[in-house]
C-alpha cells in the first residue's frame, strides 16, 4: 500500500520550480524580488538560488539571476526524442513553402497543447506562438483538432482541470458550444480558429492520429484573417492539411 506521504509533493522541489517560473516569466530577477513575489523569506530564496546556480541551471548577472542554457539542452532533448518531431518536420516545412504561411506541429501533454516545431512561409506573420509554448487546447485550431480526437473521458478530464479560459473575445468559453464544435471537427476532420487565440489571425488545424484513431498531435496553418478566408480557409487549406497529416500518420505507422 502506498502511504499518503508518498503522494505529497516535496516542498523544496516545488519551491525551486516556483523560482524558475518567476525567472522565466520576469526574464530574470533578484533575490528580493523573487522573495516578494513568492511570499518567501529572502534566506530561503537565497539557498535555493545558490543551489540552482551551483548546478548550472541559473546564471547571475550582477544582482539578477536568469535561467541558463541548461534548460535549452533539456528542451531539445525532449523534443528530439518525440517520434512525431522527425516524421512531421518535413511536411511542416513543405506546407510552409506551399502556403507561404506559418505552419506548426503541436502535441498534447498533460492536457495542454505544446508547439514542438514550426516553419515560416514567405508571408508569415509574427504572433506570440513559439517552440515549447503551452496553450489551452480549446483556444486554437491544432488544439481543437487534438481535443476532438481524444476519448470522451479524457476530454472531460482536461476541461475539469483547465476550464475554458478566454484568450480573445472570440474564444469558446461555453462547454455546450465547444462540444458541438468538436463533433463537427470529428465529422469533417479539421478545425478552424477564427481569431480565437490572436485577434486578426485565422488558422486551420488537422489531427495526426494513431492506429486507434486517437490524436497524438496536429498540424496547423495560420495567417492574417483577411488572407485566410473564403475558399482558401474552408477548402484549399483543409485539403492540404488532410493530405499532409495522412502522410505523417502512414509514415508513423511504418517507422
Descriptive tags:
255 residues; alpha+beta; 9 helices; 8 strands
Measure the end-to-end span.
40 Å
Instruction: Quote the average pLDDT.
Output: 94
Structural class: alpha+beta
The largest sheet is: 6 strands, antiparallel
- Number of helices, where a helix is a run of at least 4 consecutive DSSP H or I residues: 9
Helix content: 40-55%
Give a count of the beta strands, DSSP E runs of length 2 or more: 8
Strand order, sheet with most strands: 5-4-3-8-7-6
User: In percent, how much strand structure appears in the residues?
Assistant: 15-25%
Summarize this structure briefly:
The chain is an alpha+beta fold and 255 residues long. It is built from nine helices and eight strands. The strands form two sheets. It has a six-stranded antiparallel sheet, with helices on both faces. A two-stranded antiparallel sheet has the order 1-2.
Question: Your description of this structure?
Answer:
There is one protein chain. This protein is of the alpha+beta class and 255 residues long. Helices cover 48% and strands 20% of the residues. The chain has nine helices and eight strands. The chain has helices at 11-26, 31-38, 42-54, 70-81, 83-99, 141-148, 152-162, 175-188, 230-253; strands spanning 58-61, 64-67, 102-109, 112-119, 134-136, 191-194, 201-209, 215-224. The strands form two sheets. The protein has a six-stranded antiparallel beta sheet, sandwiched between helices. A hairpin with a 2-residue loop joins β1 and β2 (64-67). α6 (141-148) packs across α8.
Amino acid at each position: 500500500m502506498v502511504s499518503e506521504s508518498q503522494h505529497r509533493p516535496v516542498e523544496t522541489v516545488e519551491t525551486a520550480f516556483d523560482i524558475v517560473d518567476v525567472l522565466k516569466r520576469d526574464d530574470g530577477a533578484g533575490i528580493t524580488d523573487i522573495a516578494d513575489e513568492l511570499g518567501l523569506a529572502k534566506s530561503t530564496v537565497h539557498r535555493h538560488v545558490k543551489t540552482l546556480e551551483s548546478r548550472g541551471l541559473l546564471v547571475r548577472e550582477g544582482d539578477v539571476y536568469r535561467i541558463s542554457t541548461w534548460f535549452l539542452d533539456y528542451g531539445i532533448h525532449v523534443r528530439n526524442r518525440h517520434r512525431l518531431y522527425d516524421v512531421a518536420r518535413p511536411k511542416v516545412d513543405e506546407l510552409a513553402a506551399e502556403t507561404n504561411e506559418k505552419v506548426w506541429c503541436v502535441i498534447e501533454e498533460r492536457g495542454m497543447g505544446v508547439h514542438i516545431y514550426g516553419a515560416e512561409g514567405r508571408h508569415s506573420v509574427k504572433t506570440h506562438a513559439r517552440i515549447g509554448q503551452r496553450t489551452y487546447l480549446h483556444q486554437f485550431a491544432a488544439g481543437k483538432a487534438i481535443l476532438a480526437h481524444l476519448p470522451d473521458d479524457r476530454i472531460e478530464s482536461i476541461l475539469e482541470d483547465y476550464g475554458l479560459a478566454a484568450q480573445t473575445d472570440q474564444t469558446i468559453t461555453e462547454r455546450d458550444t465547444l462540444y458541438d464544435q468538436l463533433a463537427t471537427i470529428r465529422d469533417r476532420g479539421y478545425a478552424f480558429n477564427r481569431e480565437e487565440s490572436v485577434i486578426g489571425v485565422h488558422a486551420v488545424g488537422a489531427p495526426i492520429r494513431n492506429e486507434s484513431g486517437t490524436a497524438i498531435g496536429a498540424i496547423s496553418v495560420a495567417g492574417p484573417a483577411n488572407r485566410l478566408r473564403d475558399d482558401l480557409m474552408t477548402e484549399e487549406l483543409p485539403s492540404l492539411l488532410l493530405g499532409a497529416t495522412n502522410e505523417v500518420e502512414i509514415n508513423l505507422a511504418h517507422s
